[in-house]
Amino acid sequence: MYGNDGLLGEVEAAEEALRDAAGRRLSGGEGLEEYFIAVIEADQKIEPRDWMPDSYRKTLIRQIAQHAHSEIIGMQPEGNWISRAPSLKRKAILLAKVQDEAGHGLYLYAAAETLGVSRDELVQMLLEGRQKYSSIFNYPTLTWADVGAIGWLVDGAAIVNQVPLCRCSYGPYARAMIRICKEESFHQRQGYEILHTLAHGTDGQKAMAQDAVNRWWYPSLAMFGPPDADSTHSAQSMAWKIKRFSNDELRQRFVDMCVQQAEVLGLTLPDADLRWNEERKAYDYTQPDYDELKRVISGDGPCNRQRMAHRRRAHAEGAWVREAAAAYAKKRHAIV
Amino acid sequence: MRPRRGLSHGHVGSLRAPDAAMALRNARDLYTRRQEGVSIWVVPATAITASSPDEKDAFFDPAADKVYRHPTFYEVPDGVQHL
Known about the structure:
The complex is a heterodimer. By secondary structure, chain A is mainly alpha-helical. Chain A is 67% helix and 2% strand. Chain A has 14 helices and two strands. Chain A has a two-stranded antiparallel ribbon with strand order 1-2. Chain B is mainly alpha-helical. Chain B has one domain. In chain B, 20% of the residues lie in helices and 0% in strands. Chain B is built from two helices and no strands. The interface between A and B is medium-sized, with 23 and 15 residues.
């Protein structure tokens, strides 16, 4: 439905809509809750100090924190290849991309903090396993082609998920998502370029690219979450305009986008039943294994333990830096 | 942040830092990875005094009935130029 130009167009349209809505007059909205509903109905944004229902606040904290944690944990599978990137150019690009992921995590933690929770608390909840991150980062990056497949498929799926969030009813989240989506489009293109180069290289390189696509395709489809019928948070989030499309709608949109892109790569998607359905004007495709998704989310994927152990170690090993910076600031303060 | 010379500073986001010098460096790393700015100010959140959304009607009320502060309030006779 949107390719790369379409994507940035969508983000800009969301920004435009935000400005248009801000000028709209609200109808009704005398009491606190009525005002909250009127703001959402007018497609305006709820801001940090506005009254909001407790469950709206809780839903947002859970979702934004999970999103932030995903960006932070998401640095690991790609970071794995920084030292072994095939050229200095590829290395510099990958480094910039991983830095972006850290930046995205920080934008999102800042957005979550406007809801009255501190970043330290959120980090603690991640480290203790009380909050989750996206299941996709629990799969290993076995070859350099995986870095390409992550950029094309994983970032591609993330973009399809995230572009509608630029219109989310909570202001700080929507603004963070606009910023993130603008930066994210480079990620998807760099992945696509890696795969395109490999797919047009030697037979061995092409086979490596195909193998990476084969392994990342279904986990990427699973990123959109369980099918609508089993999705626990969806209906209320749609009513509050936190979420704009259902899991299955977004998954379909992603599949429809990828088919043509795979053709240009000269690679195949690993689904024998993938075919155009003229009646639905969309592709029929095989669903990912949702039992596997459940297992990976609940901690039993190929790399869950490794990812969490690495994060805990990095956090513990960085403690002296945080302490030294705080001590220095305190000392300077005492002198002044 | 000032995006370019000639434009005023605008708010771009928040961050955490132990002191002002670190805040400035963190802001550079976080908000100007693509040359988005030529100047950055950092202000501790505790130093900001803000109006409250609850009192917005009363607080901004004095301006509500003064449409004559806008040029569009005035009738311009036909034919008058450079006004």
